[in-house]
Every structure is written in C-alpha cells, then in structure tokens.
TrEMBL record:
GO terms for molecular function: metalloendopeptidase activity. Its cofactor is Zn(2+). The keyword Transmembrane helix applies. Signal peptide: none annotated. It holds the Pfam family PDZ_6. This is Peptidase M50. One of its GO terms (biological process) is proteolysis. Its main location: membrane. It is found in: Membrane. The lineage of its organism: Bacteria, Thermotogati, Deinococcota, Deinococci, Deinococcales. The chain crosses the membrane at residues 7-29, 108-133, 297-318, 351-369. It comes from Deinococcus proteolyticus (strain ATCC 35074 / DSM 20540 / JCM 6276 / NBRC 101906 / NCIMB 13154 / VKM Ac-1939 / CCM 2703 / MRP).
Amino acid sequence: MNPMQAIAAALSPQGIVWTLLLLSVITALHELGHYWAARKQSVKVDSFSVGMGPVLLRRQWRGTEWRLSLLPIGGYVQIDGMAPEEAPDGTLRHPSTGFAALPPLGRIGVLLAGPLVNLLLAIGLMTATFSALGVTANDRVRVGEVIAGSPAERLGLRAGDDIVALDGQDIPEQAEIAGKAGPGYLLLGELLKEAGPHTLTVQRTGEAEQRQLAFDWTPTVNGERQLLGIRYGPGSQPVSVPQALGRSLQTTAEAVPLVVNSFAGLLGEMFSLDLKGEETDDVGGPIRITETVSRAAALNGWALVQIATLLNLSLAVFNLLPIPGLDGGRIALVLIEMLRGRPLTFQQEQSVTAAGFLFVMLLMAFVLVRDVTRFF
C-alpha cells in the first residue's frame, strides 16, 4: 500500500462524518458558552453560526441572527464590541460598546466561558462513562478475549472475566515489575513466567461467588514460550454516580498538566522542525483525529464518548494557552491592561493578535505536515 492509499484508508467516510459531527457539536457548545456569558451581561450578540463559510440558513431570534453555514468545520459567534470599529475619519480603533464596555472581570468571564463549557462537558462525559462502565482498577485483570483452542479456553476463562487474585494473593494497585513500578494487573505476565501449579481467582460478570481455576503451567514448550491465550488489561470497578464524578474530577486534574505538557512539547518540535514527534505522538492533526474517531466508531458508542471527552478537554486547554488570537491570549491582554491601568494601543493589540493568528496557522500547518509524513 503506497502512502496515498494509506492516507485514504485512514480517512474512511465513517471516520470523516463522525469527526465533522463531533467537532461541529463541540465547537458549537464552546461558542454557546461565549454567547451565554455575553447575554448574561446584557451584551448584544450579532450572530451565531454553526459551521463556517457561506450561510445556508439564517433566522433572527432574541436579537441574534442564528446561522447554519456550508462547511461543517467549526463555528463562530459575533459579539458586539469584540471587533474593531470604524472612526469618523475611516480609520479603525478600539470598540467602545458591548463587550469592550464591560469591566475587565466581565470580559474575562465572556472569554473564559467557552473553554469552561468544554471542560464541564469533558467532566460530564467522563462521569457518564465511569457510571456506565466503571473505573479502571489496576488491582484486577480484565479478560478481553480468549483465543480459541488456547490453554485459557481449556481452563474455562471467558471474555469479560475479572481475575482478582493470583495464587491466592490479591493483586495490588501498584507492583514492582522488572525493577520498575507498574500497574498491578501486569503481575499476571510475571506469574506466567514461573512453572508449576497456579491458581487464578475469577469474578464472573453477573455471579456473586468467585471461582478458583487451578492449572499446571509450563512456560515453554519445545523450546518456545507458551502463551495462556488471552488478551487482557486492567479491570473495571463499578461505582456510583457521586463516585464517578469524584473520579472524573481527579482524572481531569491529573490530565490537564499532561495535555499542557503535550502542547508544550509540540511547540518545541515545531521550532526544531521535528516531524517524527516521538514524544508527542498523542497529539494529532486532522488525519490522526479522523483515524482515531473511525476506530472508535467501529467499536461502540462508549468509545466515541471517550473520544469526545478527550476532544473537549484538549480544546479547553488549547484555547486557554496564552497565545494571542486564542481565548487565553485575549485573557492575557485583559490582565496586562489591569496591571498597566490602561489597554495596549489599538496598533499594538492588532499587531499582537495578527502575530498570534499567524503562529496558530503555522502550528496547524506543522501538525498537518507531521500527520502526512507518518505515511511516508
């Protein structure tokens, strides 16, 4: 398969449709956050568009023109007082009404509302996922698949089983594996390196009692390593909705620094023109995102919910980066104004915003090129 065929395979029609749908909904909700915060402070909102480009449908409602535009690649909200206004002499200047007339904290509230909506959505979707599927539990082994004809099948293991103890010993959350700290479920692999009789304590879905599966194990057969014949990972622990919310908040607090570090690493790779991106392989462009969404759609609806969670969290963090042109950059300008006691001049602010916009475009181009080079 040549590179172009590989790219075409990654960009499946199903993946493209789901990606556009997810990004459109996520972006629309982000812009609704800005809209709500502006309207709560009696600031007029001129228009709200789902999609970009030529307008297909438009309707006036509550003083705002609501639009459906041709290209399903995002959306925008036009809030009075955010764009430059024309002076009597025809030159552009700082606006003086609407958003611009709000006190600094009011403007920060409008700018912060969009990313905050995405953050709350990520927490909400995460809570729903944990409530439905449970939370990851490293102190148990979840059997994902049993290979036909394998020792595991003869032993009686089934997909969905949770192994909760090895040789009568509970599996810890963390364990030392090959001299390094790791999740406890990996101890199953260490156990299978040892010959002799072993016992797995199994908790089967829908059954209250645990069962003991005893077997005599030989790690190698005819000089080759023998495999038990299962695909496995960490287990899952059922939780209540309040517990799921607590775990979501904890997970978000742990994930935000990781996302920030990933973006910081991406910026470093852009400046060094590192197209391999080995340290930030989890940060993808449109091709990688579409490929990931396509795989999730082929699995089940919950996989798509998890992708939507990650996209919301990433969009929230990215928009809060202090880069001019992003929400975080505009918040930084308001904070500078508060510290100086006066705003930047119109020319200074326009220069900073233009530089930030150019920087974001270069970053997007770099990510796209890095996406494509993976196939060559």
